[in-house]
Specification:
Number of strands: 13
Distance between the termini: 58 Å
Strand content: 35-45%
Number of helices: 4
Number of domains: 2
Strand order of the largest sheet: 12-11-10-9-13
Radius of gyration: 22 Å
Order of helices and strands: HEHEEEEHEEEHEEEEE
């Protein structure tokens, strides 16, 4: 095994102490509590929220702040802080591959922090290119197709099976909902 030089020791130490953004997975409905505990422990955290109006059973309307990404809080921490982060009540794990936490791009989190409040953001089902989706609103409401993205626009390919023709239409991603495929009808 080669001897560690002073430079190698400094690089290894910097890798352990350099702070990056990570997503932590929380117990359901514990995001705000986790964010409070992180703040009390002086761990940089970011919990994006959005406002929603709800009506209680007694008829009262209230405005609530809800997590934009349910069950996730973002933390800025070093590898050495892993134990400190995981000891926070309500945190189940740091998101990553296998046993290794995967850092998020700093620019992505900073962009969200600086600009998200300027838009009327709300959660939306995650849609992948190639996934089947249904249009929820507008003149094409109820039509189903396959999600296709071209440049900055979301397009949905609608197919007319009977005549074996398709058309791609531009749609607002907020007007799409994923279609749950019932595989039980295909499995005997």
């Amino acid at each position: 095994m080669p001897a560690m030089t002073a430079a190698n020791v400094m690089i290894a130490l910097n890798n352990r102490t350099a702070k990056s953004w990570y997503a932590v997975f929380t117990a359901p409905f514990h995001e705000k509590q986790v964010a409070r505990h992180l703040k009390m422990r002086d761990i940089e955290q970011y919990l994006p929220l959005y406002r929603v109006r709800r009506r209680w059973k007694d008829g009262r309307a209230v405005e609530l702040e809800m997590p934009l990404f349910p069950s996730y809080v973002f933390v800025q921490a070093s590898r050495m802080d892993r134990g400190k982060v995981l000891s926070v009540p309500g945190i189940l794990k740091i998101v990553g591959t296998g046993r290794e936490a995967t850092p998020l791009p700093d620019a992505e989190i900073e962009t969200l922090r600086k600009g998200l409040h300027l838009h009327d953001a709300e959660p939306h089902p995650f849609l992948r290119v190639g996934e089947k989706a249904r249009i929820r609103n507008g003149a094409l409401s109820g039509m189903e197709g396959v999600v296709l993205r071209q440049k900055n626009h979301t397009r949905l390919v609608l197919s007319l099976d009977l005549i074996m023709k398709s058309v791609a239409v531009e749609v607002d991603a907020a007007d799409l909902e994923p279609i749950q495929i019932n595989i039980s009808k295909y499995v005997s």
